[in-house]
Fold:
Amino acid sequence: MDNAGQIGLVIRVDGNRTRVRSSEGIVVDCFLPKTLRRAARQRGTTVIAVGDRVEWTLTDSGSGKILKILPREHVFSRSNPTDRRPGEDVLVTNPGRLLVIDSLADPTFNPRLVDRILCAAEAQDIPASIICNKSDLVAEDTIPPLLERYQSTGYETLVTSVISGRGLDELSGWLDTGITLLSGRSGVGKSSLLNALAPGLGRRVAEISAATNKGRHTTTATELLPYKDGFVIDTPGIREFGLWRITKGRLGRLFPEFAPYQDHCHFRDCLHNSEPRCAVKTALAKDKINQKRYESYLAILTNLPKTLPYLG
Structure:
């Protein structure tokens, strides 16, 4: 059989090892030629990521060789948290949907990180929803105010618990078609939720550190997993999430609740902060915008550049 030019889907990237699922469902270990690695590094982006569609061929040794990385439709990425030079850390490509998972307790919910992840999804037109996990650890009356923060914005939310089984049937329905990306911190229960829905996946879990209230990384590499008629992408826990190529002027466009108002501000370049005659702040004063979300917007705005650096 001639495999030259066959289309495949990258399902795991672990260091220099790349696994590709062929159109027939066969998984092949593949390598990337130096020319492809060099070209990506020159552009300041990740060479290859889970979700990439590629052209590949079999070599005489039986392993695969990637010939070409096909254009990416959507890119879920952040600023490289370790590289001294500006660069894009591509976490996943081409997801059909993003589920941002955080825990209501152990560790406590982190809305600022959730909002940053939502902004990254909005920047790439990736539909996003929020899952509040570990509901068995908190009083029921503490949950509605948190849900309102996102429901008032139009985001779909789901409350879950592996212990009580709450929300698991609905979550299963969300995952059964297309490619769904799960993103969130370590310890919030991404792997535990997957194990509850599909024990055969055998995802590793670990306890939360009492000293730091942070989870330990149990998912060590991003991986695309089959689930019913779809796929789920499980990712390592995120501790830092810097927005990639987002300026102060663009940020407001990534908060959907600002959309009905921001074009009516007096100044076209209004940042909805200290400017007079700001339609967004007027809407905020009338309780048409969630106060907590607006505070999160200001916190993110503080650390963004006015203009983007040239990367060429």
Observations:
- Residues 208-217 have pLDDT under 50 and may be disordered.
- Helices lie at 34-42, 111-123, 143-151, 168-175, 190-197, 248-251, 279-285, 291-302.
